[in-house]
Design a protein that fits this description.
Layout: E1 7-11, H1 15-26, E2 32-37, H2 52-55, H3 69-74, E3 77-81, E4 85-89, E5 94-97, E6 102-104, E7 107-110, E8 114-116, E9 129-131, H4 135-143, E10 150-154, H5 158-169, E11 173-178, H6 190-202, E12 206-209, E13 213-217, E14 224-227, E15 232-234, E16 237-240, E17 244-246, H7 249-253, E18 262-263, E19 275-277, E20 282-286, E21 291-293, H8 298-312, E22 324-329, E23 332-338, E24 345-349, E25 357-363, E26 366-373, H9 376-387, H10 394-398, H11 404-411
Parallel strand pairs: 1-2, 1-7, 2-3, 7-19, 9-16, 10-11, 10-16, 11-12, 18-20
Antiparallel strand pairs: 4-5, 5-6, 8-17, 13-14, 14-15, 20-21, 22-23, 23-26, 24-25, 25-26
Length: about 400
């Protein structure tokens, strides 16, 4: 394997892929860069899809796209949009495209992301049943939001609750079906899930826990859904927000090691030395969680895409991402970093009733995670505590009148 590649193909014209291409050029790579994407649009950020764009689909924010098309031409990044990569020819160092084309490359970065999970239930093929993963998905859902319309959201995770909040703001009658006993159980404790439950119900969202969907009813259009216990709920539209499956088939078919995504090392390298992976599809080691994880968030996609590019160019720095996510629901800005699920001590700073508080999660005295609601400054300080493995004074941490900067200083 030569030290300096002459060409790099990036499969996935998304945030991870866009940042990988950007970083290659910014770090002085002069070779050919190919950016391949199934969607017709250049790389964009997904968070607005479930929020601003649902409410204002015609007011495309200027910050949605990473760059305009002219930028890619100026940077000599060859875009192949609206085309799927169908096969990796590893011996020939080629990417085969579904339209019959081929791209030769010395290195490949897999930024294939994930596919919205579908449910194999009757009625799921009706045109008013949507998932939310792409810009086209967001536009389709937005077209069905109007005052008085009935929307059933399946899934009480981040995407499901964001869609529910947006639909409620649009004047829709919203029902959320969540099979688990709580909300956002993958990322928050029951206490925070219960807080979100009360906030949504206060805004008129009908949330039904421990309830799955059995069928979607209607001949040519959605009329209702049938829950697992046989209850019928009228609906004009159904949005499935039940997670994503890593799009790792391309790698798996090429003989690259996969397990809940493409397995990479701390340098974003797969089991094949010339192939790297980044973003939602990458199953990576994480020192903050003490094991392997796929991180499905903007920050990881951006930073790991850049890290994969730097690794190709010879960087030996390991990629060690502090897990982080944020979500906006109604007037709530929720942020979380580190491990917010496993702690032997939980410290609440403020009150849940105020809708502006922070929670610190400690393990043997060290801060391992932090969650904030409408307290962004606390998040910045909490991240520092986690990354420095600090053991702050619990009493001071719990006092909302104390200065977190002084607490950090005292614990350093």
């Amino acid at each position: 394997m030569s030290e300096t590649p002459k060409s790099v193909a990036i499969i996935g014209a998304n945030l991870a892929g866009g940042w990988a291409a950007d970083t290659l050029r910014q770090k002085g790579f002069e070779g050919d860069i190919f950016l391949i994407g199934e969607e017709p649009d250049p790389p964009y950020e997904r968070p607005p899809l479930s929020k601003d764009l649902l409410l204002h689909p015609d007011a495309m924010p200027k910050t949605l796209f990473l760059h305009d098309l002219d930028y890619y031409a100026q940077q000599r990044i060859t875009l192949q949009l609206g085309v799927r990569a169908s096969k990796l020819d590893l011996p020939g160092r080629r990417v085969e495209l579904a339209n019959g084309g081929q791209i030769s490359a010395d290195r490949i970065i897999l930024c294939t992301g994930g596919d919205a999970r579908k449910l194999p239930i009757p009625g799921s093929e009706l045109p008013q049943v949507h998932c939310l993963r792409t810009l086209a998905d967001s536009r389709a859902i937005a077209a069905g939001l109007a005052p008085g319309k009935s929307v059933v959201v399946v899934g009480g995770g981040v995407i499901g609750l964001e869609v529910a909040a947006s639909a409620a703001k649009a004047g829709c009658k919203v029902t959320v079906l969540e099979a688990a006993p709580g909300l956002m159980t993958r990322v928050v404790t029951p206490e925070i899930g219960n807080f979100l439950l009360h906030c949504h119900r206060a805004e008129g969202v009908d949330i039904r826990l421990g309830q799955g969907i059995a069928a979607i009813l209607g001949a040519r259009a959605v009329q209702a859904v049938e829950t697992g216990d046989g209850t019928r709920i009228d609906a004009d539209m159904v949005v499935l927000g039940v997670g994503i499956d890593p799009a790792d088939a391309l790698a798996r078919d090429a003989g690259i090691a996969t397990d809940n995504g493409v397995i990479v090392d701390a340098h974003c390298r797969t089991s094949v030395a010339e192939i790297f992976a980044a973003g939602d599809v990458a199953n990576q080691p994480n020192p903050y969680l003490g094991g392997r994880v796929r991180l499905e968030n903007v920050q990881n996609a951006q930073n790991q895409g850049a890290a994969a590019a730097e690794a190709i160019l010879g960087s030996t720095a390991p990629f060690e991402e502090l897990p982080y996510f944020w979500t906006d629901q109604f007037d709530l800005n929720v942020q979380a970093a580190g491990d917010t699920l496993h702690a032997d001590q939980t410290i609440l700073r403020g009150t849940l009733e105020s809708r502006a508080f922070s929670v610190f999660y400690l393990d043997q005295g060290a801060v391992k995670g932090v969650l904030t609601v409408n307290q962004p400054k606390d998040m910045a300080h909490g991240r520092r505590m986690i990354m420095r493995h600090l053991r702050p004074d619990p009493a001071a941490l719990a006092d909302p009148g104390s200065d977190l900067r002084q607490i950090i200083k005292a614990a350093s």
